Amino acid sequence: MRRLFLLVLLIGVVSWAALRHYAQQNQLYQQLEQLTTVLTAENNLASRIADDAIRYMEEAAAKDRNRPADMALVHRAQALQTRAKQLIEALRNTGDRLHRATGNTEAQPLQHLGAPIGAGLSHDAPQRQALARQLAAYTDTLRRLGLLEAKTAPLLLPALEPDTPVIEALADLTRLESELLARHTYALQHISNKVGARRWLTQPLAIATAESNVVAPGSTYRARLGVANYFSANELSMQMTCNGRPIPLTPAGTGLVRFHAPARPGPATWSGTIRVSSNVRDSTFRVTVPYRVARR
Asked: Which pTM does this prediction carry?
C-alpha cells in the first residue's frame, strides 16, 4: 500500500510539473504573439513613413527644378525603397507560409503556436538561402553608400531548427523586419537631408538598431536608440532610458544602450523611452525591441 501511495504521489508530482511547464510555455507563446502584433503595427507605421520620405524627396527635387544632383539622390532612395519592400514582402510571405502550414487561422490565433516549423526555414532550404543573400546584399549596399556603420552587424535570418515553435519563428521574422526598417529609415533620412527635404516625416518615429540581435547568455548587448524626424539634435533636449534606466547620449542625439543579457537562453526584449523637449512641445516615444539569447 505504501509503495502504491508513493507511486501515486510521484505521478501527481510529475503531472503537476508537466502541467506547470505547459502553462509557462503557453504563457510565453501568448507573450510572443502579443509582441509580434505590436511590432507588426510599428513596422506598418515605419513603412508608411518611408513612403512619405520618398514622396517628400520627389517634391523637394521638383521645387528645385529637378537638378541632376537631387534627382540622382531621389533615384538612389527609390531603388533602396524598392529593395526594402521586396525584402519585407518576402519576410511576411515566409510568416504566412508558417501560419498556413500549421493550420493557424485568424479566429484561433493560438492554435498550433507550439507546433514545429519543420524544414521550411532550415539552413539548407533554397528559399532561406535566397532570402539570406538578398538581406546581405541590401546591407552591403547601405554600407557601400556610407549609410551604415562598418561595424554594424549584418541582417541575418534567425537560426531556426526544424523543431522551433512557430510563434518563436514568427517573432524572429517580425524582429528582423523591424531591424530592416530601422536601417532603411535611417538611410532615407540621411539621403533626404542632402536633397533638402528635411521635414519629410509626417510622424516622428523611435528607432533602435542593435549591433547584433543574438547575444550569448550574460554577455553585453549593445544598441543605438534615436528618433527619426525632421529635428536636428541642436533643436532638441532629449533624455533616454533603457529598461527604466538613463543611458548616455552622443553629441548627435543617439542613445547608447548597454546591458548584460539574461543568463537563460531564449527570446527576450528590452524597452526604450525617449523624452523630447523642443520649443514647440514635449513628446515621449517608446519602443520595444526583441532579441535572442543563445549559446554560440
From this structure: 0.64
